[in-house]
Amino acid sequence: MKKTVMLLMVLTLTVALAACGQKNNDGGNNGGSELSGSFLATGSSALQPLVDQVSKKFMDSNKKVSIQVQAGGSGTGLTQVSEGQSDIGNSDVFAEEKLDADKAAALVDHQVAVVGMSAVVNKEVAVDNLTKQQLVDIFTGKVTNWKEVGGNDQSIQIINRPSSSGTRATFEKYALGQKSEDLKGSIQEDSSGTVKKLVGETPGAIGYLALSYLDDSVKAVKYEGVDANVENVANGTYPVWAYEHMYTKGEPTAAVKAFLEYMLSDEVQNGDVVELGYIPASKMEVKRDVSGNITK
Amino acid sequence: MAQSLERQKAKPHLAEEWVGKVYTLLCIAFLIGTIVSIVYFVASKGLSTFFVNHVNVLDLLTGLKWAPEGEPAVFGALPFIFGSFSTSLLAAAIAAPLGFCAAVFMVEIAPKFGRRYLQPVIELLAGIPSVVYGFVGLSVIVPFFRNVFPGQGIGIAAGALVLSIMILPTITTIATDALAALPKGLKEGSFALGATRWQTIYRIVLPTTLPALMTGIVLGIARAFGEALAVQMVIGNAPHIPSSLFESASTLTSAITLSMGNTAMGSLANNALWSLALILMLMTFVFVFIVRFLEGRSKL
């Protein structure tokens, strides 16, 4: 008796599992009638909130599609999409900057948004503007006191990102124009929230944050006299910004393709993207390639 | 008739025996397989830094400069090793006396109150997620240190203090068990000779249970050594050997967690992080051996 019940249960389970497998496999081959399938997007934690929110909306209107969004860093996203473990790899940096040339060549880049970044200082710091040279001097340890760049007599505390971080790479490339070192006594934190908290609470602190993280607890400083805001990034006068990339390997399946198209649609670009503090890719008046060349 | 009935009865037992045996063996095989593959995975990744990328082992272990993105990339892990050891040893130095005193109180001085109220409270500490410890450290300990001591408050002292609270349950629980397992006769003999309670605790109870207490400390250090998130939030993570307890430092775990997600698998920078993981794993083995050694020396 017991055995029969057991056997029945095993059978049911097998059939159920097989059915599940079936459902996942025919991912989006229905030729436009109704999208189905499941796919995985991993990578950049800076882009994750946007992908997360848009994927929920997309799943609401396409009931048969299931999207999983995981953070884990740009490197993880690029590696996983390159090795076929995930369908979309989210990244703050161009694939060419992290992967070998041949691996990067196999990936298709979808630039879905732009993120501007600004140097931020503790509110007590009496400096409103920093030139490129002053920033370089600070982040290379040549200048260690605020009075040397026109502020009060107070030592500078650097709150940096880890040297592998995409945000740091962007800041170094476009604000400093060179690599910076992990100086003795400097602080490295990985999450923007912690960076903001530390800059806000530590006397004499300087760090950098994405524009979406800026609020009253820290003070954003001008770069070469230019305010860090959406307009200045979009028209190309403010140079410290990066694309948010969503990479696919080769030709995406119908569901992935539809999702990426939805991501770039006006509804999302002027809605969720702006709402979450990113800059719509469509709004950019300038373009930038992987080696940093700007074209109008 | 009776014999055949007995044989029929015996059969299901034999089957049960067999099923149990196979099930146990399967579980053991799975467990061993998991452990072997984890060790193999970490070792193969961690060693490829030396065999594939040809980084010198001694340079990695004794180098003072960590610049994985530099030109050329330099991998010196000594600041991380120093940070890991100093924070976890300091944490044990803070937590051990507290844990022992709590254990003595719970077993010898006020067993009723201690075991009913104090022990659950201390064990509760083990269940709090480490990100909560890290955030409390960042919001309470760091500003306090910043106001009281020179420096930014961030550093080894803050890391050790957060860790000491995290390993307190480990040390206390093991010490409590050891003290409670002490044969009654020993203490009664001591009292019979006219010793006071404090003399008995100090001269008899603590020396006899010392190996078990040491086991607790080593397990606590092992836990502190492997803790990542809470320490990462309060220690500052600059890859340098600090010149004071209140200056930014880094540990093996925080170096790994900060960069692992941002580096591409198989790249030199990624392999170097796996080498740090390998060092962590080897250190854990050392701690396990020390615990085994101490257990062998138990005087009971």
UniProtKB/TrEMBL annotation, chain A:
Q: Which Gene Ontology terms describe the biological processes this protein takes part in?
A: phosphate ion transport
GO MF annotation list:
phosphate ion binding
> Topologically, how does it sit relative to the membrane?
Lipid-anchor
Entries under SUPFAM superfamilies matching the protein: Periplasmic binding protein-like II
Q: What does this protein do?
A: Part of the ABC transporter complex PstSACB involved in phosphate import.
- What NCBIfam families does the record point to? ptsS_2
Which keywords does the record carry? Cell membrane, Lipoprotein, Membrane, Palmitate, Phosphate transport, Signal, Transport
Biological source species = Cohnella abietis
**From which residue to which does the signal peptide run?**
1-18
Identify the Pfam families for this entry. PBP_like_2
Alphabetized CDD domains for the sequence: PBP2_phosphate_like_1
Entry keyword annotation includes Acetylation = no
PANTHER family assigned = PERIPLASMIC PHOSPHATE BINDING COMPONENT OF PHOSPHATE ABC TRANSPORTER, PHOSPHATE-BINDING PROTEIN PSTS 1
Primary location = membrane
Q: Which PROSITE patterns match?
A: PROKAR_LIPOPROTEIN (PS51257)
| Location of the PBP domain | 32-267
Q: Where in the cell is it found?
A: Cell membrane
The Gene Ontology CC terms held by the record are: plasma membrane
Stated name of the protein: Phosphate-binding protein
Q: How does it assemble?
A: The complex is composed of two ATP-binding proteins (PstB), two transmembrane proteins (PstC and PstA) and a solute-binding protein (PstS).
From TrEMBL, chain B:
Localization per record: Cell membrane
| Record key words, sorted | Cell membrane, Membrane, Phosphate transport, Transmembrane, Transmembrane helix, Transport
Boundaries of every ABC transmembrane type-1 domain copy: 81-291
Question: What superkingdom does the record give?
Answer: Bacteria
Entry's transmembrane regions: 21-43, 89-109, 121-142, 154-180, 201-225, 272-294
One matching Pfam family is BPD_transp_1
Primary residence: membrane
How is this protein annotated for GO cellular component? plasma membrane
* GO molecular function terms noted in the UniProt entry: phosphate transmembrane transporter activity
Question: InterPro entries from the xrefs?
Answer: MetI-like, MetI-like_sf, Phosphate_PstC, Phosphate_Transport_Permease
Instruction: Describe its membrane topology.
Output: Multi-pass membrane protein
- Which SUPFAM superfamilies did the record assign? MetI-like (SSF161098)
Q: Which GO terms describe its biological process?
A: phosphate ion transport
PROSITE patterns, per database record: ABC_TM1
Its job: Part of the binding-protein-dependent transport system for phosphate; probably responsible for the translocation of the substrate across the membrane.
- Family stated for the protein in its record: Belongs to the binding-protein-dependent transport system permease family. CysTW subfamily.
What is the protein name for this chain?
Answer: Phosphate transport system permease protein
Say which species the protein is native to: Cohnella abietis
